[in-house]
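Reopening this one. Same input as before:
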Amino acid sequence: MTDSFLQGPLAGKLFRFALPVAFTIICEQLVNATDVLILGKFVGADAMAAVGNDMPVISLLISLLVGLSLGSNVLLAQAIGGGNKAAARKILHTSLLFSVLIGGAFTLVGESITKPLLALLDIPTEVQGAATEYLRIFFVSLPFLSLYNFEAACFRAMGNSRAPLYALIVAALTNGVLDLGAGLLELGLTGVIWATVLAYAVDAAILLGMLRKQQEIPFSWKQLSLDRTDLKDIVEIGLPAGIQGMVFSISNLVIQAAINSLGAEVMAASSAAFVVEINIYAFVNGFGQAATTCIGQNFGAWQLRRCFLTTRKDLLVGGGTVLAISLGVVLLARPIMGIFSTDEVVVAYGMSRIYWVTSMQIINSVIEILSGSLRGYGFSLPPALVVLVAICGVRIIWVKTVFAAVPTFSVLLAGYPLSWLVTAILLAFVYRSLRRPIFRRYEERAQEA
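Same output, byte for byte:
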């Protein structure tokens, strides 16, 4: 059953939609943490290091898949909002077939370029073998991981952000049990990563079963096909969103290289604080996806005023939620860092990162909500370009100039809120300048209807 954003107060609907999305992302982090924990406990430091070195590649691929799936979210939400069930069914089945095909293509390409890809990362010799093995097996999971992300996007387009969370909880529990079994049976790195592959397959299968049972737009094997127009629109909307997510990962690599130059204590503190940040970012992303879905449905239903109202409400509710969580973390910075380390120097550096970065996540929420709003109308490229130029540009310039002149941790961290602030200002300008094209697109869709 679809959950509609088309009627009633928006604030509560946006909040209730965003929370399951946030907890889904947090649950995904727990799956990764379980792998690392089991590897450290039963396999050894080299296996943990191998996973750590592979994560930049894995993060980039996941960002691309999640972004591509947002194209399906937007198209399906607009079709549902417009009450066009025939179009919605076509989009759903095109999305799912495309997800498996693109995931399979990534698997084939990934398997063929694993060694040269890892060579570019300059991985230490002692962990190269384990890193290669881990990444090659991980590539096998990409069709399942891709299918899950597109299934989740389709459920969210219907206004249902809970189903992907429920499926992922089952998959996380499956992964934990299988990981532990692999550790106890001394199956090594191979056993742990195959357990994760199986968990992803379970995740995708659960959501597929739920799609078959839901009444509004049920999945049917017989209706699987690729509609060229829908596929083109999915890629046009989803690819820029994927690139935008990849830009964040790439810009973080630039900062990480600078962090590595400051010594082991700074690296340890930064890694611990990043664990906190990524969980707060889950809520940032949740409200961004809420904007995309709500605006997509209302734009399809010809409710343009409600679309603009969605952005304002989401900025208030989402920004307020992120601010409250961030301030709570800032107030508890010392005990939180104490969970990760008893070294006072590490704790102090970690607290510094929390003060500089975590406290400013509200600016990041503005970026995500404005980007999500524009995607809801079908404008995915403009926010991606702004993020590419502003986030990457500001951080690279900051590292190469200001940090190079004053190489301290606090100076380096100042580049985060600065890059967010510049991006948010530019994105607000772009959002305002696109109001006229949004009206034009609205009129064109009305004429087509």
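So the earlier flakiness isn't reproducible anymore. For the record, DSSP finds 17 helices and no strands in the chain.
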